[in-house]
Amino acid sequence: MHTVEKIGGTSMSRFQEVLDNLLIGERQGPELYQRVFVVSAYSGMTNLLLEHKKTGEPGVYQRFADASNEEAWLDALEQVRAQMLAKNTELFDSPFERQQANHFVNQRLDDASDCMRSLQRVCAYGHFQLGEHLMKVREMLASLGEAHSAFNTVLALKHRGVNARLVDLTGWHMDAPLPFEQMISHSFEDVDLSRELAVATGYTHCTEGLMNTFDRGYSEITFAQIAAATGAREAIIHKEFHLSSADPNLVGADKVVTIGRTNYDVADQLSNLGMEAIHPKAAKNLRRAGIELRIKNAFEPDHAGTLISQDYKSEKPCVEIIAGRKDVFGIEVFDQEMLGEVGYDIEITKLLKQLKLYVVNKDSDANSITYYASGSRKLINRAAKLIEERYPAAEVTVHNVAIVSAIGSDLKVKGILHKTVAALASAGISIQAIHQSIRQVEMQCVVNEEDYAAAVAALHRGLIEPENHGDVIAAA
Q1: Each residue of 392-412: pLDDT tens digit?
Q2: Mean of the per-residue pLDDT values for the chain?
Q3: Sign of torsion, CA 189 193 196 197?
């Protein structure tokens, strides 16, 4: 009967719109219930608590991990407090609700501060090393953002007469953590979804430590596990945009179309390109549970959005999406001794993994292998140097490239290679490499980095705009 729905941080920062359009909207009485919402921290809050996701600017965690200046992380924590209290002032006009929200924030931050001070004192002794406890600190700090937004959501709903319930998965007052799946099941055991609107934190405290594996992608893992554990009829992710045939900023808002239906295979290809409809491990949980996923625009609640299922295929072969990424480097390894050496690249793959470089794809011929990896230029150069040290006879060249992909649930389109090459050639773009697997769900074109935006527009113009993909863009 129920749905499990996730709201991202950027949407949560437009909370009044989310409250009016999504959480409540036109619903009354029983219509308000049979829903679970999993909420992220307000936009920018996790950056302040940990580190900035894009720039790497240190937050509370990074300053604490440096351990060189206690005042630095304390000042950063007070900055978080100021931001959280300011958010509470923005959301709550009533002094009573605002006081409750502020009390919750202050209590959590004071607890975190006391814990971190105590840990520093203990680690002043030689038998205890701070590095052994840093992941626990990181998880504790991350949980503060989700707890803040979830508590406020419940408070605001109750103020509007909704019987809302906070499902706090942060384990803040637990004596000992439970395994992940058990923690989720235990927390929902006595929730009556027929008369309670459940709001759960995106972070879950558990024995496995979600951040060890997923780092800041944990909220979608929590979301998928709640859907699987509670037997949801549908899982829904609310974003600030529709899942469309391309980035409207590159192609033009009047040119793109919303994808009505697609499958999890397509979602995986998007994840590989860094354009996640959903984290691939979260998608795996939903697939196993037989739960369909819907991607919706949080600010267009009446639009059906995109329905993602396991077995869907478009009625006729076609390209559904043009996507890509430009933060890619081609690491080309040429070595004439490579021929006939089975497993030559095993050591290189291990090295790239150790450096935490993400390999989007790779290709090879008789005497060369090229890895298309995403990461900082510094790490890419480090990888190239280490490969040269490991294989002295090899020539290693780094190329600045971008990947542009044509993706579809059934890409067995006659003449698609010709159309792709022609579309790029007509825009004056040279193809550096091209990949298409037998599975026929994606074709990747490697182009020069500076040609990325033009390549996306050219492929959308050549492979999608001329066709009337009614079966693809129809509302699910």
Answers
A1: 999 999 999 999 999 999 999
A2: 91
A3: positive
Helix 134-159 vs helix 70-91: crossing angle, to nearest 10: 10
Q: Are 425 and 459 in contact (CB under 8 A)?
A: no
Contact partners, residue 119, CB within 8 Å, separation at least 6: 130, 133, 137
Rg (CA), the chain: 24
Q: 209 exposed, middle or buried (CB, 10 Å; 0-12, 13-18, 19+)?
A: middle
One DSSP character per residue, 210-233 reads HHHHHGGGHHHHHHHHHHHHHT-S
Distance CA 50, CA 137 (A): 10
Overall pTM surpassing 0.85 (yes/no): yes
Paired sense of beta strands 395-407 and 442-448, if any: antiparallel
**pLDDT value at residue 321:** 95
Element (H, E) at 433: strand 431-436
List, for residues 56-104, the tens digit of each pLDDT value.
899 999 999 987 667 889 999 999 999 999 999 999 999 999 999 999 9
User: Residues of the chain with pLDDT > 90: what percent?
Assistant: 76
Around Cβ 20, how many Cβ atoms within 10 Å? 13
Q: Which of 207, 203, 208, 209 is nearest to 226 (CA)?
A: 203
Per-residue pLDDT averaged across 424-438, rounded? 94
Q: What are phi and psi of 410, to 5 degrees?
A: -145, 100
For residues 57 and 137, what is the distance between their CA atoms, to the nearest angstrom? 18
Which has the closest alpha carbon to 37: 191, 205, 160, 207?
A: 191
**Which residues sit opposite 446 in a β-bridge?**
403, 433
Residue 363, SS3 per DSSP: strand
- DSSP E strands, 243-389: 261-263, 293-297, 306-309, 321-334, 358-364, 368-374
Distances (CA, A) of 134 to 43, 66, 67, 120, 131: 24, 10, 11, 11, 5
H/E/C letters for each residue in 148-179?
Answer: HHHHHHHHHHHHCCCCEEEECCCCCCCCCCCC
Structure tokens at 173: 């007052």
Rounded Cα distance between 357 and 353, Å, is 6
